[in-house]
Design a protein that fits this description.
Layout: E1 21-26, H1 27-33, H2 45-53, E2 63-68, E3 78-83, E4 91-94, H3 99-105
Parallel strand pairs: 1-2
Antiparallel strand pairs: 1-3, 3-4
């Protein structure tokens, strides 16, 4: 009768997700900056991106914005973010950056389109 050693490894399990995109945001930079993003400038980059991109916290969402350990870049007044599909490009996001531009630079597509901008004709009093 053979006994299994107490240090025997348990079998690995797999947990499935619906994630198509994963954005990693440096926790250390976010903690140092203490906000600076979003419409009021009071949210961290992670929370502002989650709200702007309609990303959730669960494994059932298509997009995940997750805090990660330090990337060893440590910019001043900015946070480092990276799309997990493109790990060779670390994006340094300054405080107060436009979230639409952050989305575009990270290569994310959330299905929304830009609203068309219409130019109004000049009102000089003459009918067109």
């Amino acid at each position: 009768m053979s006994k299994t050693p107490k240090s025997a490894a348990k079998p690995m399990k797999v947990s499935k997700t619906r994630w198509r995109e994963v954005v990693l945001v440096c926790r250390k930079c976010s903690k140092k900056l203490k906000g600076g993003y979003g419409p009021d400038g009071d949210k961290t980059l992670k929370k502002a991106l989650r709200r702007y991109l309609h990303a959730g916290k669960s494994r059932k969402d298509a997009l995940a914005v997750v805090g990660a350990d330090c990337f060893d870049v440590c910019p001043k007044n900015a946070v480092v973010a990276v799309n997990a599909r493109r790990p060779e490009e670390l994006l340094i996001v300054p405080a107060g950056a436009d979230l639409f531009e952050v989305k575009a630079r990270l290569g994310l597509d959330d299905g929304r389109r830009l609203k068309p901008v219409f130019a109004l004709p000049a009102s000089d009093g003459t009918p067109s």
